[in-house]
Design goal:
five-stranded antiparallel beta sheet; mainly beta
């Protein structure tokens, strides 16, 4: 089949230009491109809101995005620090991490339930 296809392609005459030897068609001016629209402004901040509260027994750091609390770091005076994290997006800090390693923390928000 490859030889037959090559033979058909090779034996077909080359396409001739429509206006061989004639005047080129009249060219139209290209319209100016529209102005670039302004950058979209949103009301929410991209960086998390961080609130730090200290007392005699511990330091509590709260992390919020768009007003929604998603993580709390608790650093007691005595003992190791730990994290409370909302892994499902339902507003409850149900997961505790004693050794929080950010590269392995992936927020898993529920988009649809049925």
């Amino acid at each position: 089949m490859g030889a037959a296809l090559a033979w058909v392609t090779w034996t077909q005459p080359a396409a001739q230009p429509a206006a061989a030897g004639g005047e080129p068609p009249a060219l139209e001016a290209v319209p100016e491109p529209p102005d670039i629209p302004p950058q979209v402004q949103s009301g929410e901040t991209l960086e998390p809101e961080i609130t730090i509260r200290r007392d005699d027994k511990q330091t509590v750091t709260e992390y919020r995005t768009s007003g929604r609390l998603y993580a709390v770091k608790v650093e007691p005076v005595v003992g190791p620090p730990y994290w409370l994290v909302d892994t499902t997006g339902d507003g409850f800090l149900e997961t505790r991490y004693d050794n929080f390693n950010p590269p392995y923390f992936i927020p898993g928000w529920v988009i649809l339930r049925w």
